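Example for tutorial group B:
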């Protein structure tokens, strides 16, 4: 049995689903890049575990769980296990991230994203990057319900200020073994409802290749065409990283140049006014003693 303190670590401000949301659809977006599974966690348990936790809070309508990220190097057995647990797998498009995909989905006005709708975001992005999505939920009213999950080490700033999301924020979970991924204590406790929505496994790199069959999706990931697109994708990521590194190094050089100029001015000031400037003393200028 979990103690009170452990339960508070597991979730915060979690509210039971309203009668309308209890039977409406729920879509879970899991950022696999920023929120990997804990070491040794069985991937086939992810779907049933999330499903069970949502049902415990009264969300009993159709559930879609989307695992999205850069799939390069991810073992196919791992992806297959996720799929067997009812997780739909998506490869990120070039130059995109999960939050961009969420924003596009919300603004697409597709029927599946119309209210009433609950959406859970499992991500470690900084709270500022959630602002766009939070504002969409706020502007669309209480029939849009936002749920959050994140690693304990990257806990978001409070997304429920007094004037925002009071009516359409369902709660927060921690993405770890004590939180959303906790062991229920019984191998048969977690279950996964069969309806996973109309989502298919999808590759955003290859003209949005999609398939309901994981075997077909795996065959696509092994294809030469996908390998070429993945090479472009990795080259893009490497280029972006190098640009960030260059900007950082440039900023460091500018800072060093600025500090050197400040130090030169300080020494000029010390010399001009005949003040002491000893490295053995503190940097506070002192009047020169009279002879």
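The residue assignment follows.
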């Amino acid at each position: 049995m979990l103690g009170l303190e452990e339960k508070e670590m597991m979730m915060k401000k979690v509210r039971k689903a309203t009668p309308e949301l209890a039977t409406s659809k729920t879509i879970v977006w899991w950022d696999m890049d920023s929120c990997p599974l804990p070491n040794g966690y069985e991937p086939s348990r992810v779907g049933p575990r999330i499903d069970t936790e949502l049902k415990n809070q009264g969300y009993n309508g159709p559930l879609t769980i989307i695992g999205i990220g850069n799939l390069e190097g991810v073992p196919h057995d791992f992806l297959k296990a996720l799929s067997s647990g009812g997780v739909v797998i998506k490869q990120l498009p070039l130059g995109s991230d999960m939050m961009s995909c969420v924003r596009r989905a919300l603004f697409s006005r597709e029927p599946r994203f119309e209210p009433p709708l609950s959406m859970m975001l499992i991500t470690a992005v900084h709270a500022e990057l959630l602002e766009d999505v939070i504002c969409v939920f706020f502007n669309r009213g209480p029939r849009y319900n936002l749920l959050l999950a994140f690693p304990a080490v990257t806990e978001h700033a409070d997304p429920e200020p007094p004037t925002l999301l009071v009516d359409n924020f369902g709660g927060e979970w921690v993405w770890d073994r004590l939180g959303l991924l906790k062991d229920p204590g019984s191998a048969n406790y977690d279950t996964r409802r069969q309806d996973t929505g109309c989502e298919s496994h999808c590759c955003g790199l290859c003209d949005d290749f999609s398939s309901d069959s994981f075997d077909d999706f795996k065959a696509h990931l092994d294809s030469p065409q996908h390998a070429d697109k993945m090479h472009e994708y990795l080259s893009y990521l490497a280029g972006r990283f190098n640009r960030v590194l260059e900007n950082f190094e440039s900023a460091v050089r500018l800072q060093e140049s600025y500090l050197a100029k400040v130090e030169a001015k300080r020494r000029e000031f010390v010399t001009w006014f005949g003040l002491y400037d000893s490295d053995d003393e503190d940097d506070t200028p002192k009047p020169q003693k009279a002879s």
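The first strand starts at residue 11 and ends at 12. Compare this with the pattern of hydrophobic and polar residues in the output above.
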